[in-house]
Amino acid sequence: SLNGTVFQSDFEDYQLGQFTGVTLETVSVDEMESRGAELEATWLATDQLTVNAGTVYTDNRYPENSNIDQRAPTSDGNLRAVERRGGLWSATAGLTWTQPVTETLGTTFHIDARYRDDNFSNSSLDEDFAQDSFVVVNGRISVGDLARNWSVELWARNLMDKEYDSYGINLQAGFGHDSYLAGPPRTYGAEVTYRF
Q1: Rounded CA gap, 136 and 159, in Å?
Q2: What is the reported pTM?
Q3: Do 35 and 5 meet the contact criterion of CB atoms below 8 Å apart?
């Protein structure tokens, strides 16, 4: 199957939350634009193998005549009108292999990857918060009965232990430094499911 979407949105009186270094303030910006496209595909390659993939192009920005730089100036004087707010591209891809072992027992192997384009971890668009593109890989292996009454699963997220920032906060005004919230590191675990 193949699905696609094209979108364009213009927001008026956009509510922007911004940390000033001491307090969190919400300000109303006159306009913000968002436009892009999304494409998703799923392919049943064989009875056992399913392939899925998707990509999103998103261009979020304040228009040239926006009052963003007057209503919510950054502590370092960055001008945000016209500049895009984040990465343009993101994408996902995954493979799922299901293999019967006996008449009642089966195994499933799954791996997926998520790509994110160059972006900023803070809405100030300060170069201190610029982040290079990155890929996160996840995987899982499960064994269970084909009726799906029970399963045992081993899973891992961020298999390559990729380091990236989920969010950054400018604390220069209040504390003289910036703070970063790191993305989750490599994690792994096991799950047992039984359906009554």
Answers
A1: 7
A2: 0.83
A3: no
